[in-house]
Amino acid sequence: MTRRRGAPAELAVNPIACQAHGMCIELLPELITADPWGYPLIAPGPVPAELLPLARRAVGACPTMALLLSSRGPDLVTAPDAG
Amino acid sequence: MGPQALVVNSATPLWYTTRATGLVAMVLLTVSMACGLLSSAGYQRPGLPRFVTVGLHRNSALLAVAFTAAHVITTVTDGFVHIPVQDAFIPFIGSYRPLWLSLGAIASDLMLALAISSLLRSRMSYRAWRALHWTSYACWPVALAHGLGTGTDTDVHWVLALTVACIAVVAALTAWRVSAAWRWRRPPAESQ
Amino acid sequence: MSAADAPPAARLLAPLARPDLAGHLSAYGPPPFGPAGSADHEALIAAVEESGLTGRGGGGFPAGRKMRAVAAAGRRAGPLRSPAGTVLIANGGESEPASAKDALLLSRAPHLVLDGIVLAARAVGATRAYLCVHGDPAPLRAAVTSRERAGLNRVPIQVAAVPAGYVASQETALISFLNGAGAVPSFVPPRPAERGLHRRPTLVLNVETLANIALIARRGPAWFRGVGTAAEPGSVLVTVGGAVAAPGVYEVALGTPIGAVLEQAGGPAEPPQAVLAGGYFGGWLPLPGAGSLPLSARSLRAAGAALGPGVLVVLPAASCPLAETARVASYLAGQSAGQCGPCTQGLPALAQALGQVAFGQPGPEVLRWTRDLLALVRGRGACHLPDGAAGLVASTLQAFAADLRHHAEHGPCGRAARPPVLPLPRPPGSGS
Predict the structure, then answer these.
(1) Which of chain C's residues have a Cβ under 8 Å away from the Cβ of A17?
(2) What burial class does residue B134 get, using C-beta atoms within 10 Å of its C-beta: 0-12 exposed, 13-18 middle, 19+ buried?
C-alpha cells in the first residue's frame, strides 16, 4: 500500500493474485461488485474520503493481498505490450 | 491419571489459572482452526459472509495467543513445580515431564510464528506467508497432545468431553476441507 | 520525400543485407562503437530519440524514451543494490500467428539485429543481453559465436528459445521465462524498466527496432526520418497475408496507403471484402474503401484498427468474417495463461458466444451477452490478451454489422465452410 497523506487514493486489483474469495465485495459493496464469475469489478475513480477506512479494511481482509490502495492510481502497464 | 494427581495437588490460584487458561486456549485454537478451514474452502451462507469467518479466525487466534501467554506466565511463576521460562519456548531441555511440556513449547512457538507472520503479512511474499501458515496443521494437534499428556484435568469428565469435541470438530472439518478442495475452484454462489 | 509515392523503402531488407558476418561487415562496416563509458552512449540515446523510432513489436512506444528510462534506472539502482548492470532483451518471439517479419529479419540480416543489441546494450549500461526467438536457435548462436571471434560482441549475448504461445513473448512473460519460471505475464508494477530480469532494470525491444537502431547509429536520425511521415518516420516490415497474390514480408515507408502496400504483395487474389490490420489485437477495415488509408499507427487506430507488429491480412468476399473471427477468438481463448479470472472465464465465454453468432442463429440475448462480455474482460487481466481479443470481436461486430443481421435472420451463411484465411498455428505435436 503506497499512500501519501491527503492524496486521492484509488483501488486496484492484482488480477493474478485475485482468487475471487470475495472479501472485498462483501466489505465494500459501495465500490466493488462481483462479475458473473465472482471476480471484483471496481468502480473507477478515487475512493471517497468517508469510505477510506472501509477500503483499508478491505485491503487488509483480502486473503491473497490482491486488493491494492495507492495514491498514484492503478499503474498498470504504461506502454502497451511492447517488444 | 493416578500418579500425576499426587504431584500436582496444589490449590493455589495460579495453578487454577494455568489450568483454566490452558483449556480456554485449546477451545479458542479449535475455533480458529475451524474458521480457518471454513474460510480457506470459501464457505459462506447468507447469514455468514466470508469476512465474518475470516474475522473470527483471526480474532480467535489472537485471543488464543493471549490466553496461551497467560497460561505460560502462570505456569512459570507458580513455584510449586519449578519450570524455568526457557522451558516454555525451547523444547526438550526441561526436567519436568520433558516430552509433554516440550510439545507445549513447540505449539506456542508455532503460534507465535503464525501470529507474527500474519500481522506482518504485507511485508513478506504471499508464498512465504502461505508456506508458514501450513504449519497450523501441526500446531493444533501438538497443542492438544500437550494438553492430553501434561494436563491435570484429563480425568475430569467434562474436560475430557470438551477435548473430544474439539478433536471431532477439527477432524470433521479437515476431512470436509480436503474433499471440498477438489470441488471448489470458483466461488460457490454465482458459477454458471 | 512524400510518403504517398514512396517506392518500397529497402533499408532493413536492403539488397545489401547479408546473413553472414563477412558479407555484413563489407556491406555496412563495423558497428560504430566508442570507448566504453564514453559520451557515445548518451549520443546514441539522443539520436534514437531524435529519429522518432517507435517500437516495432506492436507497442509503438518511443524507443529512445525507453532506452533513457532504463539507463536512468540503471544509474539509480547503482552498484550498491546488485552486482550487475542493466539487462537488454531482444524480442524475436513473434507469437502473432499472422506475423513473419521477425523470423525473416533474423534469417536475412541477423547481424543488423546483433549490432543493434550490442549498441543499445552499451548505451543503457547493460552487462548482458538475451535474444529470444521462437524456433531453432542454432543459426543465431553460430552468428553470435562468429562475432565473438571477431571481437564485435562487447556484451555477452545469449540466444534463448522461447516456448510457443500468444502471450509467451509479452515483455514480462519473457522476463519470467528467463528468470526460470513459466513464460506467462506478471503483474505490473514494477515495470521491467525499473525491475525486470534478475531484479535489474530491463530494456525489452523488438528485433526490428534494434536493427533500425543499428542503422541509426551508422547513418544518423536525419537519414532515418528520410522516409515515412513527420509524425511517424521510418520504414516498417509488414507481413501481408490472406487472399493476395504474393503473400510475404514487405518493407514499406510509414504513411504508405494500404492499397499500395497490398499492390506490392501482388494485389488481392480474389475480390476482397476487408483487411485485418494489426494482427489479432487489431481490427477490420473494409475494402476497397480502406485502400487510401495511410499505414500508420495513428490513422489505423483512428479507423478502429491498429498497426500492431505490421500485419495485413486480406479477407476475400467469399469468406464469412464472423466464422473467421470466431475461430481466432477460440484460439485466443486457448492462449490464456490462466492466471486471471476474468480472462480465464471470459475469453472462452466470448469465443463460445461468437461461435453461436457465426455458426448458429444468434438471438438478441446472445448478442447482448457478447457485448456484455466485451465490457467484462477489457482491462481486467495482467496483460493485454483480453483487451486485444475484445477489440477484435468489437471491430468484427461493427465492421460486419450487415453479416450479423443476416446471420440473425437466416442463420449461418454458406461461406463459413470455406477453408480458413486467417492463419492459426498448428497444434503442438503435429509437426512444426
Answers:
(1) 187
(2) exposed
